[in-house]
Design brief:
5 helices, single chain, Transcription Regulator spoIIAA, 43% helix, five-stranded mixed beta sheet, alpha/beta, 5 strands
């Protein structure tokens, strides 16, 4: 990640779970990359979508809108978990109540463990 590339994204698929990892800043200039990586993860129709924001250093309101829109788009067909262990990502979610609409976990391992229990149901 550099000044020219303020966001990093990746997708990994494992056993019905798509893990989207994002690092850097989520703002109006990087939101399209955030939306694109989520869309890429959803192409394989996973049972669970884990969005790992552990390496996010800043999240503007547009990032919250992307998360809310994703939740609205998938409804109950795909379970979503957000990993946010820093105030940069978790605090905006808590202040807006978005943490009540989607599960929020401090680590990816905890999210995968919790969702793994229910993913096969």
């Amino acid at each position: 990640m550099s000044a020219a590339d303020p966001i990093t994204t990746s997708v990994a698929h494992r056993e019905g779970v798509a893990v989207v990892s994002v690092g850097g800043e989520i703002d109006s200039s990087t939101a399209p990359a955030f939306e694109a990586v989520i869309a890429e993860a959803l192409e394989e129709d996973p049972a669970v979508l884990a969005i790992d924001l552990s390496d996010v250093t800043f999240m503007a309101s547009v990032g919250l809108r992307v998360l809310a829109a994703t939740q609205e788009e998938v409804g109950k067909s795909i379970r979503i978990a957000v990993v946010a262990n820093s105030a940069a990502a978790s605090r905006p979610m808590q202040l807006t109540g978005l943490d009540k609409a989607m599960a929020l976990y401090p680590t990816l391992d905890e999210a995968l463990t919790a969702l793994g229990r229910d993913a096969g149901d």
